[in-house]
Amino acid sequence: MNRYLVPILALLATALLVARPLYADSDIIVAAQETQVNVVPRTAALRLVNLPAIDFGLRAALRCSGNPVSLTLSISDTFKTLDAASLDGQRAVETNLIVPARQIALAASRQFCIAGDGDSANEVLVPGLVTAHASLRCEKNGASTAHYASAPLLLRLVCERPPAEPEPAQEAPPESSPEDM
């Protein structure tokens, strides 16, 4: 079973990496840079990594036949809507979405950031755990159209291990004198 699962997962991960940004309609494209997330070590008994609030930087390129009315960008349950005044004359917009902790699924990993295990990985790239969605509404001659796009996001999880405790200073053995011998 694992013999087939590994190549399939590798193909899926490659497709997610190569396909960014994804093109939906010809009127909108959404993309994001890789996002780094710092996490604290977990106990070995926990197989899931709890994710903190994450700040994603998003960019949307847009083109309306007519005038843009609104652009909504979302990740999980977090969204931001830009109105017509914000989009007037813009061909692209950049914004940040801060997704609170617990809105994103827990990341599963056996060998990442385990407390007390120096051999566990300190960094892992997780493609496609989260997806950004964009919705562009345009208006021309009283008719409205809507265009959609989405893109998987890359998360780099980095383990923030506490600094190693300094070892106690070893005392030098007392010097011996010739009389001690």
Question: Helix and strand layout, with pairings?
Answer:
Elements: H1 2-18, E1 28-32, E2 35-39, E3 48-49, E4 54-62, E5 67-75, E6 78-83, H2 84-87, E7 92-99, E8 107-108, E9 123-140, E10 143-159
Parallel strand pairs: 2-10
Antiparallel strand pairs: 1-4, 3-8, 4-7, 5-6, 5-9, 9-10
Question: Can you put this structure into words, describing what you see?
Answer:
With 181 residues, this protein is mostly beta strands. The chain has a domain at 19-36 and 53-101 and 126-157: Immunoglobulins (Immunoglobulin-like, Sandwich). The protein contains 2 helices and 10 strands, in the order H-E-E-E-E-E-E-H-E-E-E-E. The protein has helices at residues 2-18, 84-87; strands at 28-32, 35-39, 48-49, 54-62, 67-75, 78-83, 92-99, 107-108, 123-140, 143-159. The chain has a 5-stranded mixed sheet. Strands 1-4-7 form a 3-stranded antiparallel sheet, with no helix packed on it. The chain has a two-stranded antiparallel sheet with strand order 3-8. A hairpin with a 2-residue loop joins strand 5 and strand 6.
